[in-house]
Design a protein that fits this description.
CATH architecture of chain B: Orthogonal Bundle
Radius of gyration of chain A: 19 Å
Strand order of the largest sheet of chain A: 6-7-8-3-9-10
Strand content of chain B: under 5%
Oligomer: heterodimer
Number of domains of chain A: 2
Number of strands of chain A: 10
CATH topology of the largest domain in chain A: Rossmann fold
CATH superfamily of the largest domain in chain A: P-loop containing nucleotide triphosphate hydrolases
Shape of chain A: globular
Shape of chain B: globular
Largest interface: A-B, 45 and 40 residues
CATH class of the largest domain in chain A: Alpha Beta
Largest sheet of chain B: 2 strands, antiparallel
Helix content of chain A: 25-40%
Strand order of the largest sheet of chain B: 1-2
Number of strands of chain B: 4
CATH topology of chain B: ABC transporter involved in vitamin B12 uptake, BtuC
Number of helices of chain A: 10
Number of helices of chain B: 19
Order of helices and strands of chain B: HHHHHHEEEHHHHHHEHHHHHHH
Distance between the termini of chain A: 44 Å
Helix content of chain B: 55-70%
CATH class of chain B: Mainly Alpha
Structural class of chain B: mainly alpha
Radius of gyration of chain B: 25 Å
């Protein structure tokens, strides 16, 4: 395991992410209605709810893709409400998308090389000026090593030179997560990482998530699949009609009548 | 046999070889058809010079547009606006002060030409910034609307009588001088010949005079203009090479990688912590400055400039050049510019020139009626053919439209097909390229060369 993936963190059970009274209206519809919750460090927290409960909107509000009408988002003690997505990502709160958003016309390697922070060559003059380009190339070589290690970790190194657009749905999810990890995040927001992923890959992806969580990463996971959430998360937040219906351990959620009513309908 | 084909294939994989081969083919086609039809040496040299000129300007413009559209996905259809600002501001800065030369209605600030070129490029970049700040926050099609509107605003601004002439301070004491943009009647570019000044500055005027003497051996009557335009063409090709170098380095870098990511999916780039607005603005301004320079190079040797030169169709010519070559590829942009200039822009006119000078077919009918009636009444096609030949300039646009439609249907990725130009400052690939991709003839050749013995083993 590489240095970039293995990270030692202070073993404190604080809450890096705090969401307070988050509200977002689209026209007459209130997609998120005063949602408040916290995510504990080093845990895998599940965010569930039926379709239209406001889970993805909540994600977009947290990561700055949308700005909330009311409420605050606090990350590592700083108010990040309404900050630009790139600022939030650079603070170490990185998301993946519900439908994998690979950069199709770029190879897997290019996708991965894009992610790391603090790339000297992102300054145009350093990349272009003859004297300055040497340091860019040096950093590129170091990044490439990290990229290969990450590809190895996710077992997708055989796809390295493939165009990302040619990957299968599951491979794209792996790529997206690997790419997000290369930004050196503290916390990952995964929006339905298992949608459209076959069971074998799903198992592998879950193993990776657990392994990373053991290393100290924090995860907030949006997922439809109840069983998956119940079996893998220590803490579960249930959203319904834009509000936080309840939260607790999987056992508590399973026993909660309101959740069964809202989420599973009248079938159970 | 097979060895020579592999050698040839390897050579072909080099982008410079591709471009050189294409240029060679274009020039030989022009030379051969001229020779076969008995074109005069003078006419031949002149047509080669203007061919080189148009290859140069369209290749530079296509390269600059490729940075916008091919790399960053910015839909700029206001190319002429940036060209116009480039040359007009350059003229404003570099024209001599009013009254020092006789011909011009208005003067300039009388600063050296290189200063004018830099200020012109800067002004084009600044206009790019002004356009970009509000428009880049919107989606691609809005940028398109804003840019084309801007290019028309620029044209009408230079046309307006308000800016035809006005007083402007030209020294620190605050004395003013009569300057202006000349309005609809145009602006005379009465600064010293830029090419000769350039040749003087680099100390090659002796070589230039020698070249004139050599050409005088072939064309005794007034050889200097021929040499002048040929040399200017060569300088332009040098500029193309400089653009190519600059944009290749821009593309093959972390900066270019972010641009590519913005083109593919801007939200992803932002979610990965990239301040995409910054990248888009820098890319847009750089492309605009390069377009401004292309405008300057196109027009500064022409003696005068009028606003109506900068009609939107010129923008679409550049787009056709880029589409022919395949957007996203610098090599393709140069080749597209060359093919467009040779086949679509200059080709029909050259054909017309050659035919009329060789066959001297006489007067063409003045309108469609007299052209078509002999064909219908007594099957005499000549008036119609003459009329067609005479209308080549108009038909040119039809041909371009047809070519564009054909391309979009059959070869949307352009001349070279799908290109892989890796966005990284180093070749990406594992330890000498173990996991090579198969079946892609155009794959990056440098990434999987057979190496010189060191690469494969050492890193194991």
């Amino acid at each position: 395991m590489s240095e970039s993936v293995t990270r030692s963190r202070p073993d404190v059970s604080d809450t890096p992410l705090q969401v307070e009274g988050l509200t977002k209206r689209f026209g007459g519809i209130t997609a998120v209605d005063g949602a408040s919750f916290e995510v504990e460090r080093g845990t895998l927290t599940g965010l569930i709810g039926p379709n239209g409960a406001g889970k993805s909107t909540t994600f977009n509000l947290i990561t700055g893709m949308l700005s909330p009408d009311a409420g605050t988002v606090t990350f590592d003690g700083d108010d990040i409400t309404g900050h630009e997505p790139y600022e939030i990502a650079n603070r170490g709160l990185v998301r993946t998308f519900q439908i994998a958003r690979e950069l199709g016309e770029m190879t897997v390697l290019e996708n991965m090389m894009l992610a790391p922070k603090g790339q000297r060559g992102e300054r145009l003059w350093r990349s272009v000026l003859p004297g300055a380009r040497g340091s860019v190339r040096k950093q590129e070589a170091e990044l490439l090593e990290r990229v290969w290690e990450m590809l190895d970790f996710f077992d997708i190194e055989h796809l390295a030179e493939e165009y990302a657009g040619n990957l299968s749905g599951g491979q794209r999810k792996l790529l997206e997560m690997a790419r997000a990890l290369l930004t050196d995040p503290d916390m990952l927001l995964l929006d339905e990482p298992f949608a459209g992923v076959n069971p074998t890959l799903e198992k592998r992806l879950l193993e990776h998530i657990h392994e990373l969580r053991d290393q100290g990463y924090t995860f907030l996971l949006v997922e439809h699949d109840m069983d998956l959430i119940m079996n893998n998360c220590r803490h579960v937040i249930v959203m319904h009609q834009g509000q936080i219906l309840t939260e607790g351990t999987p056992e508590e959620i399973k026993a909660n009548e309101a959740v069964i009513e809202a989420y599973l309908g009248g079938d159970v | 046999m097979s060895e020579t084909t592999t050698t040839l294939r390897r050579l072909w994989a080099q982008d410079a070889v591709k471009i050189a081969a294409l240029l060679l083919a274009i020039y030989s086609a022009y030379l051969v058809s001229g020779l076969v039809l008995g074109y005069s040496v003078r006419g031949q040299l002149n047509s080669l010079a203007s061919l080189t000129f148009y290859i140069g300007v369209f290749a530079t413009l296509a390269l600059a547009l490729n940075l916008h559209w091919g790399y960053t996905g910015l839909f700029n259809i206001g190319v002429v606006g940036f060209m116009a600002v480039g040359i007009y501001v350059m003229a404003f800065v570099s024209k001599p002060l009013y009254g020092t030369t006789g011909a011009a209605q208005v003067g300039g600030l009388g600063l050296p030409i290189p200063v004018g070129i830099l200020v012109g490029m800067g002004a084009a970049a600044l206009l790019g910034l002004v356009v970009a700040l509000p428009a880049l926050r919107l989606r691609a099609d809005y940028l398109a609307i804003v840019t084309i509107a801007m290019s028309e605003i620029v044209r009408f601004t230079f046309l307006s009588s308000t800016f035809q002439q006005f007083q402007f301070p030209y020294n620190l004491a605050g004395d003013t001088t009569r300057v202006g943009f000349g309005g609809g009647s145009g602006l005379i570019l009465d600064f010293p010949d830029p090419l000769l000044a350039f040749i003087d500055a680099v100390g090659l005027s002796g070589a230039y005079d020698g070249l004139v003497a050599v050409v005088a051996g072939i064309v005794p009557n007034n050889p200097e203009p021929i040499v002048h335009s040929l040399v200017y063409g060569v300088v332009l090709l040098g500029v193309v090479a400089a653009y190519f170098w600059l944009l290749k380095r821009t593309g093959e870098s972390p900066f270019g990688r972010v641009l590519k990511a913005i083109r593919e999916d801007e939200d992803v780039a932002r979610a990965l912590g990239k301040n995409t607005d910054r990248f888009k603005i820098i890319s847009f301004m750089l492309g605009c400055a390069l377009m401004g320079l292309a405008g300057i190079l196109w027009l500064m040797g022409q003696g005068a400039v009028t606003p109506n030169f900068f009609r939107p169709r010129l923008t679409f010519f550049v787009w056709i050049a880029l589409i022919i070559g395949g957007s996203g590829s610098n090599t393709g942009s140069v080749m597209g510019g060359a093919v467009f200039a040779a086949a679509l822009y200059q080709g029909p006119l050259y054909f017309q020139n050659v035919v009329t000078s060789v066959f001297q077919p006489g007067e063409a009918p003045s309108s469609f009626g007299p052209a078509i009636s002999p064909l219908l009444s007594n099957f005499d096609p000549f008036p119609f053919l003459l009329y067609t030949l005479d209308s080549v300039r108009q038909l040119q646009l039809v041909v371009m439209g047809v070519v564009l439609i054909w391309l979009m249907h059959n070869r949307p990725q352009g001349l070279l097909g799908h290109r892989k130009e890796t966005a990284a400052a180093i070749p990406l690939g594992r330890r000498g390229g173990g996991a090579g991709r198969s079946g892609d003839a155009d794959a990056e050749p440098t990434a999987q060369t057979d190496g010189d013995g060191t690469g494969g083993v050492a890193d194991e």
